[in-house]
Amino acid sequence: MTPQAPVYERAADDAWLTAVYYRFHAWSGRRPFWAGLFTLLGGIPIVYFPYADMRLGNVTIAMATTTGSGSLIIGVLLVTLGLTLWFQQGVRVFAGVAAILLALVSLPVSNLGGFFVGFIFAMVGGALALSWAPGIPADEEAGAAGAAGRAQAPRIGPQGVPAPYGTETEYATETTAHADGGRNSAG
After folding, report:
1. Distance between the two ends of the chain, CA-based, in angstroms?
2. Residues of the chain whose pLDDT is less than 70?
3. Which residue, 41, 78, 89, 91, is most buried by CB atoms nearer than 10 A?
4. What is the DSSP track for 106-131?
5. CA 97, CA 63: separation in Å to the nearest integer?
6. Which residues pair with 7 in a beta bridge?
7. Helix (H, G, I), strand (E, B), or coil: what is residue 156?
8. 50 inside domain
9. 107 lies in which domain range?
């Protein structure tokens, strides 16, 4: 061993950490993980700020308002929607729309949506939930592509240019050129 190229020996404890990482990656890949995380994180500041107080020496500054119960309801619902996105992917459209509506309602109800932090997180989480679509597993994708590929495989012409299908003509005739907006040879 030289000081220029140190050799790091892998500990036996790293194997379980790697297994946990790959399991988590596989789990989060089958669901709208980031949508749930952003929605869940959006509910935390909405709940926190109306009930938080800050102490500066002997002076206590509190943001307690009459809308504390509304903030609590909105924040708890956003956290619940975030967890729902993780564990019940089938309701992702409902959860996304509900998260966006709750984020919009949090602006006037709970201190400008948790001083815009919770509002932005909830809006992004709702948008991600609406845009997420479940993927097709690789083995099903290969089977579906094989069945569809046999039915209508593209023909390859010269120099790798796709050739027309059986229903298309290879060269435009005078009739098809005129029907497609081409020049009429008679006129």
Report:
1. 87
2. 1-13, 61-67, 137-138, 140-187
3. 78
4. HHHHTHHHHHTHHHHHHHHHHHHHHH
5. 29
6. none
7. strand
8. yes
9. 27-131
